[in-house]
Specification:
Length: 452
């Protein structure tokens, strides 16, 4: 009899696990209460990057005169909204078609465990019960709303109400300067809003390389983004068309809209974890071991709800590894995920991407490092593209030459970091990059130069 694998949640973690397990012969049921593709497609990665792409085109148009062109841009908010919706629909259709081609049973409803081997879906047609040999909890997360904020979807917004908001804000106050906060700051300033960014620490992106954060801060300042550093928001009040954010140091920011970018909370409530004996930690996450198994071995958790690294790319990879484990493929060339080697990117302008060891962390523990950094200003392709901002930095082991990490700031950084990600994951050496015959002219030539 095939393995009966029931998955709750159809985001990147759930749908990847479903496709892989089905292709390996499992009988897969995936329960999704909203849309296939998950919050990643509906609210998070895809709409934010679609809007950033439109903002990027506007910025390019503003730079067009430096390329010998005359151009002007007018933002059509209705067309922008249609574009965002169309992309999500295209991705949803493609993902659904893939799942259906693998005979995954798709159930539209809200799932919960009623025992260790039984999952119930509340559907429009009533409750449906499924027996399972293995279960995956992949229910994602949702924006955190502090007790001092009361989003109204009009002028006080969560990230889910900003695609696009009812109108492009005249003046947006963004609370929170982690990855989401800086991406929204970039997005709305590119779309024409005045932006004030409330930064609770002394630098934006507090957990990133200080040099990288400084490039972004300078870029924001050059676009008249106001940075309120060292200020923790405490209250939001609305007066007609105006909103006011008061901070713990007495400063006050005024704008037309406020956007909360202060993290997320896991969707583990109402999942029936207690009924199945699955442990949920104090923060509400459902932790798993290196195979993704919770304390109940045939019940797995993946993606944001598992509380490791909240990235869509990580969620998909966890889903794949879990599907392989469920199907007993651990003996194959099955590598465990090494979260320290995950590449990530911030889709600002310039883009920022990094992978592996961070320079400050390495120095803090006294680790010897070879650090090489080259600016894009010497790269022919970046001059041709008319955007010579940024740099490539590669960290390697001085004794062995093994690539340990790197950061890229500049055009296409999110694509270029893949080269370093392959090197870091596979223990390649700087000489492996240097000896590769690359394309000319290409931004990637700066990688070879930094590796030399
Ligand atoms: C603004 C923003 C931008 C982001 N951009 C990026 C990016 O560019 N790149 C990147 O890698 N990551 C990005 N992320 C993070 C990324 O969105 C998440 O890490 C990713 O969505 C996690 O995938 P998941 O499968 O765990 O959950 P989700 O994508 O959240 O999917 C979970 C699904 O489970 C469903 N569900 C929940 N409970 C139930 C239930 N009881 N029954 C049935 N269904 C249920 C939900 O409806 C949802 O569809 C971004 C996050 C935010 C907030």
């Amino acid at each position: 009899m095939p393995v009966r694998f029931v998955i709750i949640g159809g985001g990147p973690a759930g749908n990847t696990a479903a496709t892989v397990a089905a292709s390996l012969g499992a009988e897969v049921t995936m329960i999704e209460r909203d849309v296939v593709g998950g919050a990643a497609h509906l609210w998070d990665c895809i709409p934010s990057k679609a809007m950033i792409a439109t903002g990027g085109e506007l910025t390019e148009l503003a730079r067009a005169s430096t390329m010998g062109l005359e151009a002007s841009g007018h933002l059509d908010v209705v067309a922008l909204r249609q574009r965002v919706t169309k992309i999500e629909k295209q991705l949803r259709d493609a993902t659904t078609a893939l799942l259906e081609s693998q005979n995954v049973r798709l159930v539209h409803g809200t799932g919960h465990l009623v025992g260790p081997y039984t999952v119930v879906a509340d559907t429009d047609d009533g409750e449906v019960e499924f027996e399972a040999d293995a279960v995956l909890l992949a229910t994602g997360s949702r924006p955190r709303i502090p007790e001092w904020a009361d989003p109204d979807g009009e002028r006080v917004l969560t990230t889910r109400q900003a695609y696009p908001p009812p109108e492009i804000p005249d003046h947006l106050v963004v609370i929170g300067s982690g990855v989401t906060g800086v991406e929204f700051t970039h997005m709305f300033s590119a779309l024409g809003s005045q932006v004030t960014l409330v930064v609770s620490r002394q630098q934006v992106l507090p957990y990133k390389d200080a040099e990288v954060a400084a490039v972004l801060e300078n870029e924001f300042l050059s676009r008249d983004v106001k940075l309120l550093k060292g200020a923790r928001a405490e209250t939001i009040t609305r007066d007609g068309d105006k909103v006011f954010v008061s901070c713990d140091d007495g400063r006050r920011a005024e704008g037309s809209h406020v956007l909360l970018c202060i993290g997320s909370i896991p969707n583990s409530d109402g999942l029936g974890c207690e009924a199945a004996g699955v442990e949920v930690n104090e923060q509400g996450y459902i932790p798993g071991n290196r195979h993704g198994q919770t304390n109940i071995p045939h019940i797995y958790s993946a993606g944001d709800v598992a509380g490791r690294l909240p990235l869509s790319s990580v969620a998909s990879m966890q889903g794949r590894k879990i599907a392989e484990h469920v199907m007993g493929l651990t003996a194959r060339a099955h590598r465990h995920l090494d979260y320290d080697k995950a590449a990530s990117a911030i889709f600002t302008d310039p883009e920022i991407a990094d992978v592996g060891m961070a320079e400050a962390e390495a120095f803090a523990v006294g680790r010897k490092l070879r650090v090489t950094k080259v600016p894009f200003s010497a790269n022919p392709k970046s001059l041709i593209n008319g955007d010579p901002r940024g740099f490539v930095k590669i960290l390697s082991d001085p004794a062995t030459g093994v690539v340990l990490g790197g950061s890229i700031v500049g055009q296409n950084a999110a694509e270029l970091i893949s080269v370093l990600a392959v090197a870091v994951t596979n223990g390649l050496k700087v000489v492996d990059i240097v000896d590769s015959l690359l394309v000319h002219p290409a931004l990637a030539e700066s990688l070879a130069e930094a590796a030399y």
